[in-house]
Amino acid sequence: MYETILYDVMEGIATITLNRPEKFNAFTEKMHKEIIDALKQAGKSSDVRCLIITGTGKAFNAGQDLSDMQGVEVDFGEFLRKRYNPMIMQIRNTEKPVIAAVNGVAAGAGMSLALACDIRLVSEKAFFTNAFINIGLVPDSGGCYFLPRIVGIGKALELAMTGEKISAEEAYRIGLANKICSAENFEAEVKEYAARLAKLPTKSIGLIKRAMYKGVEMNLEETLEYEAYCQDIAGSTADHKEGVQAFLEKRSPVFTGK
Ligand code: T3D
C-alpha cells in the first residue's frame, strides 16, 4: 500500500518503518505523505495503543534527500510548511505514545523527527547529527523547539552550531535518548518497551502527553487548571475505574485503553 514506508499493526503497536535504505531513509515528498497518512491511521485506530517510528537498514533517517534537490530552485519556507511541519504536528497531536526507535544515524530533519517523538530508544550503534549546519541551513522540523527543551539551550546551541556527531552513550548522558538498546536485539527490546506502553491506560497517556507539553509553555496557575481539566477526563475513563478496583482487590489491573 505504501512505497517508501512499511506499516504494520500487531498487538496494539503500530510500526512505521522508513524504507529507503539505499538513501539512508532520506525524506522525499512521497515519504512525507505516507508517514502523515500512517500516523493518522494509527492515531484513529482503536487497535493501536502505541506507535513506533524506525528505519530499515543502517540508518534511522538522514534528513531531506539531497539528491532530490540538485538543480532545483527551492522555496524553503513553502517546502517546510507543506511537507515537514504537518508531519511533526501529526506526531504531536497523536494522543498515543510515539517511540522513535533510532536504529542508526539520525541526521538533520531525521534528528528532528526523533526529537518530536515522545520517547527515544537508541541502538548502541546509532548516532545523531544536527547536520543542517554542514549545508549552511538552520535546524528545522521543530529542531529549534525540541532540542533546547530536551538538552538545555547551551548544549542545543553547541549541537546546532557544530553539527558534531553524538554517540548513543552521549545521547543518553545528555537526556536525548531514554534508553540504549543492544544492536543485536534492538527490535525485540523496542517491541518489549512498546508492549509495556500499549498495555497502559492509553487515554491517560494521551492526556499526559497533552498536559506535559502544554506544561512547558504555561505558568503554574495555568498548568494547575489544565491538570484539573485533564483529570476530569481521566477520572471518567474505564481504565481509571479498573485501576482503583484492581488495587482494592490486590490484583494486577487489565487496562483496555478506554
Ligand atoms: O531543501 C532542503 O534541504 C530543506 C530541508 C531540510 C531538511 C534537512 O534534513 S537538511 C539536512 C539534510 N541531511 C544531511 O545533510 C545529511 C547528509 N548525510 C550525511 O551527512 C551522512 O550521509 C550521514 C551522517 C547521514 C551518514 O554518514 P555515513 O558516513 O555513515 O554514510 P554516507 O556514506 O555518507 O551515506 C551513505 C549513503 O546514503 C550514501 O549513498 P552512496 O554513496 O552509498 O550511494 C549517501 O549519499 C546516502 N545519503 C546519506 N544521506 C543522504 C543520502 N542521500 C541523499 N540524501 C541524504 N540526506
TrEMBL record:
It comes from the Bacteria. One of its GO terms (molecular function) is isomerase activity. Keywords: Isomerase. SUPFAM superfamilies: ClpP/crotonase. InterPro entries: ClpP/crotonase-like_dom_sf (IPR029045), Enoyl-CoA_hyd/isom_CS (IPR018376), Enoyl-CoA_hydra/iso (IPR001753), Enoyl-CoA_hydra_C (IPR014748). Signal peptide: none annotated. PROSITE patterns: ENOYL_COA_HYDRATASE. The keyword Isomerase applies. Belongs to the enoyl-CoA hydratase/isomerase family. This is 2-(1,2-epoxy-1,2-dihydrophenyl)acetyl-CoA isomerase.
